[in-house]
Every structure is written in structure tokens, then in C-alpha cells.
């Protein structure tokens, strides 16, 4: 099997890829918590905090700066928007049912699949189809991640002590 070479990301899209690292870290934290039978409401509280403080802003930036620059009928745009809607619905469901481990697992799966889709397909498509003007506008965006995001959260349920 031929090793996959890293995809050269256009500088205008790099900040979105950096955000994705933290999205995948959220997936890992959810799965760690579930695997080690951490109370679902503890995991849910962190998920809702992370969504409000980080992921929601990232989604809004993608929708405004990336998806909207593609034609409305573009199949990759449609998939990306549908993925976001699925994740928004899962977050709303978790808000109502904080002890539902099934919802947390579904969110982890949906978020991971969405990030992999964007990194492997959508971002390449954007790089190939964006005008230099669109790329320049997008390049002005800074990652949404707050330096103090993790410092503010004290319940590190994903750190398993042996």
C-alpha cells in the first residue's frame, strides 16, 4: 500500500485545519470518557462548553467564508452543510439528554467523519475552485481557539489515572 503524502494546504485554509485538530481531540475525549465509563453528564457538560466556546464559531466561519463561496448546488457544499446540521441537532439533543451515551457516541462519530471529509475532500475542492480574491478574504481569518479554553475547564474526565 502506497503511503499517503500530506496534502499541501493553501495558507488561507490552514487556520481551519488547525481548528480541526482540536475537533478531533474532542472526539478522542468523548471516546475516552465513554470507554472508561465516565458519567455521561460530565462528558456532555464539556461537549456543550467546547461547542459554545469553540466549535460553533468554527462552523459559522466555515459557513460564511468557505461554503458560501461555492455554488448552492455544489454536492460537496451540500454535504458539508448537511453535516453541520446533523452536528447542530446532536448538540441540541445532548442539551436535552445529558446522560445519553448513545448521543455522545453519535456526535463523536459524526464530528470525526465530518472533519475527515473536509480535510480529504472539501478543502482540496475549495483550493481548486476559489478565486484568488476568495482566498485572500479567507486568509484574514484567525483560528477561533481561545488560549484559555482548556484552562477554564477543571473537570478533565479524559485523563485516566491508573
User: Which stretches of 5+ consecutive residues score pLDDT under 50?
Assistant: none
Beta-strand residue percentage: under 5%
Percentage of residues assigned to helices: over 70%
What kind of assembly state do the chains in view correspond to?
Answer: single chain
Give helix and strand order, one letter per element, not per position.
HHHHHH
Strands, count: 0
Count the DSSP helices. 6
Distance between the termini: 37 Å
Structure report:
The chain has 162 residues and is mainly α. The protein has one domain (11-145). The protein has six helices and no strands. The protein has helices at residues 11-35, 40-66, 75-96, 101-129, 132-139, 149-152. Helix 3 packs antiparallel against helix 4 (101-129). The model has no long low-confidence stretch (mean pLDDT 90).
Main features:
single chain; about 160 residues; mainly alpha; 6 helices
Short synopsis of the structure:
The chain is an all-alpha fold and 162 residues long. It contains 6 helices and no strands.
Draw up the topology in text.
Blueprint: H1 11-35, H2 40-66, H3 75-96, H4 101-129, H5 132-139, H6 149-152
